[in-house]
Design goal:
Oligomer: heterodimer
Largest interface: A-B, 53 and 48 residues
Distance between the termini of chain A: 14 Å
Shape of chain B: globular
Largest sheet of chain B: none
Structural class of chain B: mainly alpha
Number of helices of chain A: 8
Number of strands of chain A: 2
Order of helices and strands of chain A: HHHHHHEEHH
Number of domains of chain A: 1
Strand content of chain A: under 5%
Helix content of chain B: 55-70%
Strand order of the largest sheet of chain A: 1-2
Structural class of chain A: mainly alpha
Helix content of chain A: 55-70%
Strand content of chain B: under 5%
Distance between the termini of chain B: 11 Å
Number of strands of chain B: 0
Largest sheet of chain A: 2 strands, antiparallel
Order of helices and strands of chain B: HHHHHHHHH
């Protein structure tokens, strides 16, 4: 596992998660349920934003509390903080954008079990200050959101002929239904990983011996 | 809803749908992390699969009772709508249950503990468990307790089947000469895509 940025300018803490330590492409983490919303661009954007808010927020809170949390119950405390933040996001979405909340369904709640959120608070926020932990969380979540967005931008035009709801292909375009269905997400992600690793080969062996669940 | 007389056939439909047509991994994208990380060998995959089946089933029954007994509007304990606490309560029940089972296994069944207990700590953050729990209370499903239990059993077994299939394929592919950038994650995800395509073949057989 790449060692997280210890010091240096804060910008690199933020960008490391998007590039060098990208959670999906480099760390093989968090290829979770959020893939389910990538058949259209708009829900993917909302999901990405929700994840950035939750990861940044939970890293901030847990880092601020890191010296008062007893080591034995730290997982429980982290789950509590994360669930409360997810509940806040869920209620905000229900109150102000009900249609989107219905569209995302149970997948907002499933941010709780997204490995990236717990991974960042366990792996970074418990050892670093609040401000930097928040940036680190935002960076990791943004790297995740970026990958999701790339997948959505392949799947939505080819699968349903639109991009963020706007038709991009001329009349008579035969859309590939397979890309809208579940296998399309897996195949697109596989090809994206392939391309990224062909251009920027990972320095270490492609697979980690033990990844987080 | 089907009439009462077809109770058994409704349960069978829910079971087959959650196992095959609406497979929790291949069509709902849940549990991907452990699905990819632990599918290198059949033994690990099977141990993790069994642990998931067990925990999903037990927590789904527990959470179903808690949800309709305490949280849902019009519940018997005061009737207040506490559904905004759903996520918090569900994840606490799951984490607590996992901790309890781990302690009991370690104390009373050390053999079983070493064969599948080691996977238990990983399970709290396994999306299959929380996902099944959240999907079973979706209002348009109208699940009763029996339906929810069968749904949870089918989902857990669906995960077991999927991860064992993937482990089998990955074991066979080990001697293959795969292009370097595709090794590991890339190929595994593409295989998963092909498996998902195969499972699409079940579409239309039964429907939730």
């Amino acid at each position: 596992m790449n060692a997280p940025q210890q010091s240096g300018p804060w910008v690199s803490t933020l960008t490391a998660g998007i590039t060098r330590d990208n959670p999906i492409l480099v760390q093989v983490l968090g290829i979770c349920s959020a893939l389910a919303v990538t058949n259209a661009v708009r829900p993917t954007l909302v999901m990405g934003l929700a994840l950035i808010v939750v990861t940044g927020g939970s890293s901030l809170v847990i880092s601020a509390l890191r010296n008062t949390i007893p080591h034995r119950v730290r997982l429980m405390v982290q789950m509590l903080v994360i669930s409360v933040l997810v509940i806040v996001v869920h209620l905000l979405l229900r109150a102000h954008w009900y249609a989107m909340s219905e569209r995302l369904g149970p997948y907002v709640g499933l941010i709780i079990t997204n490995c990236i959120v717990l991974g960042r608070s366990e792996g970074y926020a418990l050892q670093h200050g609040p401000w930097r932990s928040c940036l680190d969380g935002i960076g990791a979540a943004a790297g995740y959101a970026a990958v999701l967005l790339v997948i959505a931008m392949v799947r939505e035009p080819l699968g349903s002929g639109t991009l963020a709801g706007v038709a991009v292909f001329p009349e008579g375009f035969q859309s590939a239904l397979l890309l809208s269905a579940a296998p399309g997400a897996f195949l697109t992600l596989g090809v994206v990983v392939w391309i990224v690793r062909a251009i920027w080969p990972p320095a270490e062996p492609t697979e980690h011996p033990e990844a987080l669940p | 809803m089907m009439p009462e007389s077809s109770e058994a056939s409704r349960l069978a439909v829910i079971f087959l749908a959650s196992l095959l047509t609406n497979n929790i991994v291949l069509s709902n994208f849940l549990g991907m992390c452990s699905f990819i990380a632990l599918s290198r060998s059949m033994k690990t995959a099977f141990g993790m699969g069994l642990a998931v089946v067990f925990v999903t089933f037990c927590t789904a029954v527990l959470n179903y009772l808690i949800y309709y007994g305490l949280l849902a509007p019009g519940n018997p304990c005061g009737g207040a709508d506490l559904t905004y606490l759903t996520f918090l309560v569900f994840i606490l029940v799951i984490a607590g249950f996992v901790q309890l089972v781990e302690m009991l296994l370690e104390r009373f069944l050390p053999g079983l503990y070493f064969s599948f207990g080691i996977f238990l700590p990983l399970i709290t953050v396994n999306c299959v468990i929380l996902g099944t729990n959240l999907l079973m209370i979706e209002p348009d499903r109208h699940f009763g307790l029996g339906d929810a239990a069968v749904y949870a059993l089918g989902s857990g077994l669906g995960y077991l089947v999927a991860i064992c299939l993937l482990a089998g394929i990955r074991t066979r592919l080990q001697p293959a000469d795969v292009p370097r950038p595709l090794r590991g994650l890339g190929l595994t995800v593409i295989i998963t895509g092909l498996l998902a395509m195969a499972f699409m073949g079940f579409t239309g057989m039964v429907d939730l």
